[in-house]
Amino acid sequence: MNATPAAMTAARRTEDAPPSLRRSIGVLRRLLRYTRPHARLLTGAFTLLVLATAADVVNPILTKVFIDDYLTPRRFPTWPLAGLAGAYLGLLVATVTLNYLQLLLFQTVALRIVQRLRVDVFSHVQRLGLAFFDRTPAGAVVSRVTNDTEAVKDLFVSVLSAFVQNGVLLIGIFVSMFALDARLAAFCLALAPLILAAMALYGRLAGPAVRRTREWLGQMNTRLSESLQGMHIIQALGQEDRMRRQFAEVNRQHFLARMQTIRLNGWLLRPLVDFIYTLALMMVLAWFGLTSRTGPVEVGVLYAFVNYLDRFFEPVNQMMMRLNLFQQAVVSAGRVFELLDDTTLAPQPAESAKGGPTPRVTRGHIRFEGVSFSYDGHHDVLRDISFEVLPGQTVALVGHTGSGKSSIMNLLMRFYPVTRGRITIDGWPLETFSEEELRQQIGLVLQDPFLFSGDVMTNIRLDRPGVTETDAVDAARFVQAHRFIERLPEGYRAQVGERGATFSAGQRQLLSFARAMAGHPAILVLDEATASIDTETEALIQTALRQMRQGRTTIAIAHRLSTIQDADQILVLHRGRIVESGTHQELLARGGLYHRMYRLQQGGHPSFAPTTVGTGPHTDA
């Protein structure tokens, strides 16, 4: 359908507008889409607003009638005055009641919109790929989900509702002023361009300052988050003063940016509007002064005009004062939408796989065929990796830091897309599997186990539909975690502090083992799974590990070579390539890199030690 000339003209104006204005208009349009589900409530709020405004602007006219018709001629009939007073009080009560109801409706809609927006942002963050979190500090994401959405709430609650309310009030005031004296009202209306020019100037100057303020606020959140997460390292290495200085500098920059907006507020908001108001008042008084030379002046009309002028500039003042919140809200909403528009999503099943047969992991037969991978798109951390893991086999990946071990795990878990080559499971390309199938059939145990707030049972089950409480208890028994859980005051209902801080490293790792086994995975991925466990605990779970691997395809990343000597195959990586492969005894007999690494761990003196190579944003263990 062809666009109307009016629509084309509006679009052309938007395209010709400055970039900051176009951005603000685009953000506002997108925010207003969130109001569509609440059209009925908004209609009711607007209706109440119009009625409240009408009741509010009629009262000065009643006062004008009292002054001109009764007070000036000194006529005080009882019943007419009683009716006038009753009407005045009735309108006051109606104004208060209607304003309360319309404000309640506007606030309800605003809070529901921001509630929906926060859920949308959080849901989108859950779908983002690990590549996004590699380059984005956690504090910056937290700032957008919390502080920026809070500013968006202010846009709906304090800005848009106030602009609409004050806009309707201004229209009502002008209608009343024209009813009293059309020429004087038109004269006052000529001041409107000055007010609009002040608003436009403020928006142009304040936008960059507000944007810098929000960016430095995000930096402060990043510093704070980083400090809290690494507090034990900060205190252990005596870094308190350095962190304090860095935070103080970020805080100073935020202060300077905020002060710039305050200076703009001081010049361009209420002082400028008060100046224009004074000019308007002088013009009105001068007009009535000149009129009094040619005839009598109606005092009631003068009172009504002065009253309307005051009522006119008070909404203007409120709108100008809220321009600062408006700028902050638009900038914050833009940052939120930037996050929502980020396309760095976790790898999804290929389009060609949708609608076709649903692949399932049945045996756990894994093949890497000429796989290469780069985190940054320029430097390969894996180069032409090819190997095969037969169902039920255990393959260990060893190598120095940066060799690519964890990158292989990341690709198998489909945390990142393969750059070149392909990975198959049971003959199916990895990208054809659904997310649910992969997460259900691949059990992952990381070197640094992560526990969620909640109780022990919740951390093992994770609310997975196919995992019952019986499965969780059986898994805990299987990995030797049941004994220490039973000794807890509340057993499986014992509360887990943030990141499991109330448990030892070994206990946290045992719980992560139980979590992995509770889902009965066909494939097991162990990323330095015993690195955080003490010798006594490791002895307890080595038997469990052997039982876990029975009937399951297992890929184990290991630093301590003593833990993978019974692996069916050991792959030795160096600088992103497989340089050796074989069993433990075969590799020792070759006298190559594996032999040198083994001698080094046994206290020997190898003649060759490979150089550690950093090849991406991750450091592979």
Question: What is the fold's blueprint, element by element?
Answer:
Layout: H1 5-16, H2 19-33, H3 39-71, H4 78-127, H5 130-135, H6 138-180, H7 182-189, H8 192-229, H9 231-236, H10 240-268, H11 270-294, H12 299-321, H13 323-341, E1 366-374, E2 380-389, E3 394-399, H14 405-412, E4 420-425, E5 428-429, H15 435-441, E6 442-445, E7 454-455, H16 456-461, H17 469-478, H18 482-486, E8 495-496, H19 505-518, E9 523-527, H20 535-549, E10 553-557, E11 569-574, E12 577-582, H21 584-590, H22 593-601
Parallel strand pairs: 3-10, 3-11, 6-9, 9-10
Antiparallel strand pairs: 1-2, 1-4, 4-5, 7-8, 11-12
Description:
The chain is of the alpha/beta class and 621 residues long. It folds into two domains: 20-341, Up-down Bundle (ABC transporter transmembrane region fold), CATH 1.20.1560.10; 366-601, Rossmann fold (3-Layer(aba) Sandwich), CATH 3.40.50.300. The protein contains 22 helices and twelve strands. It has helices spanning 5-16, 19-33, 39-71, 78-127, 130-135, 138-180, 182-189, 192-229, 231-236, 240-268, 270-294, 299-321, 323-341, 405-412, 435-441, 456-461, 469-478, 482-486, 505-518, 535-549, 584-590, 593-601, and strands at residues 366-374, 380-389, 394-399, 420-425, 428-429, 442-445, 454-455, 495-496, 523-527, 553-557, 569-574, 577-582. The protein has a six-stranded mixed β-sheet with strand order 6-9-10-3-11-12, with helices on both faces. The chain has a four-stranded antiparallel β-sheet with strand order 2-1-4-5, with helices on one face. A two-stranded antiparallel ribbon has the order 7-8. A hairpin with a 2-residue loop joins β11 and β12. α6 (138-180) packs antiparallel against α8. The longest helix is centred in the first third of the chain and has 50 residues, at 78-127. The protein is elongated, with a radius of gyration of 35 Å. Residues 1-19 and 607-621 have low confidence and may be disordered.
